[in-house]
Amino acid sequence: MHLTGIIPPMVTPLRDRDALDLEGLEKLIEHILSGGVNGLFILGTTGEGPSLSYRLRRELVERVCRQVKQRVPVLVGITDTAFVESINVARASADAGADAVVVAPPYYLPEAQPELREYLEHLVAELPLPLFLYNMPALTKVSIEADTVRWALGHSRIVGLKDSSGDLDYFRNAAQLLKQRPDWSLFIGPEEKLLGALQTGGHGGVSGGANLFPKLYVRLCEAHRAGDFARAQELQTQIQRVSDSLYHIGKHSSSIIKGIKCALTCLGVCNDFMAEPFHRFRAEERALVQTRLKELEADLVKLKL
Q: ∠192-187-221 over CA atoms, to 5°?
C-alpha cells in the first residue's frame, strides 16, 4: 500500500480513565474525515495509545473501523514493551478491518540496532497486516537509524516510515533511500516541518493539528502537489500559528495533546479528559485556548478555509 497526503494521528476521546467518550468519538471521526484527509492513525502518541488499557485499545479500534467503513485507510499503533501484546493488538486490528499497523522501537530498556532489526524480523513474521515504522527517538530513546531503514526496505511487508525526530537531514536521507522502494510511504510527524518535508521528497504528514483543522493541512499538500509554492507557504505559516498558539501552553511536553484536546472541547467535538498521569487544562489555560482558537478561526476565514 502506498499512502500519501494527510493522515491525522487522532486523539482518543475519553470520559474517564478507562472509558471512551462515544458521542465525541463519532463526532471527531466525522469532523476529521470531512476535511478530506487520506487516512486515520489511531493509538499513536497523540492518541495516548501506550497509556490505554488493552481492552480500551481494542474497543477503540473496533469502533473506529466500524464507523470509517473503509472510507479511508485506518492505521493502528501497536507500540508496546511486550512483543506478545503488540501482536495481540495487531490481530484484533486485522479482525476489525484496519489496513495497517504502526510500531516504534520498544521503549523503557533501549535496544541496539541489531536487536531492533531482529525484533522487527520476528514481528513482521507474525503480523497479519502491513507495517509502518515509527521513528520517535524523543520518547523511545532509540532512533531507527539509516542502516535499519535500508534493511527494512528489503521486507515487502514493511511499507513505510513515519519520522517524528524533527531532523530534516534524517528525513532527507530517508527520502533518498526510498529510491529503492518507490512503493514506500514517507511521512513527517512535526507539522511545523510539513512543507519542508514535502519539498524534500516526503509523501505527507501525520499532523496532530489536523484533528482540529483538517482542511488546512490537506490544502497545503494539494498546493504543493499543484506547484503553487506561494499558497503552500501561506498555509504552512498558518500551521505554524496553530502550533505557536495551542501547543506551548504550559511547561510540559504533554501540553501539545492537552492543547489539541482542549481546543476540540471548545469546538464542541469531544471530551478533553486525559489518560493518567496527565490531566486536562485548568480554567485559566482553557480560557487562553478559547481566546487563541477564535483568532485561529478568523485566520482560516481569511484563507478561505
A: 65
Q: Cα(215)–Cα(56) distance, rounded to whole angstroms?
A: 29
Expressed as residue numbers, the domain containing 33 is 5-227
Across the chain, mean pLDDT equals: 97
pLDDT of residue 258: 98
Task: Mark whether 179 is an active-site residue.
Answer: no
Q: Name the active-site residue from 27, 107, 162, 261.
A: 162
125, β-bridge pairs: none
pLDDT of 3-22, one tens digit each? 999 999 999 999 999 999 99
At residue 304, φ and ψ (nearest 5 deg) are: 60, 45
Strand duo 5-6 + 204-205: pairing: parallel
**Who contacts 299 (Cβ-Cβ below 8 Å, separation ≥6)?**
238, 241
CATH of the domain at 158: 3.20.20.70
Enumerate residues 6+ apart whose C-beta is below 8 A from 116.
105, 142, 144, 148
Express each pLDDT in 198-220 by its tens digit.
Answer: 999 999 999 999 999 999 999 99
**Helix/strand/coil percent split, the chain, to 5:** 50, 10, 35
Domain membership flag for residue 272: no
- Residue indicated by cell numbers 486536562: 280
Distances (CA, A) of 122 to 86, 166, 225, 243, 265: 12, 28, 37, 38, 41
Is 161 among the domain residues?
yes
Looking at the domain assignment, is residue 264 inside a domain? no
**3-state secondary structure at position 175:** helix
pTM above 0.85, yes or no: yes
Catalytic position from the list 134, 170, 217, 247: 134
294 inside domain: no
134 is catalytic: yes
Instruction: Say how many domains are in the chain.
Output: 1
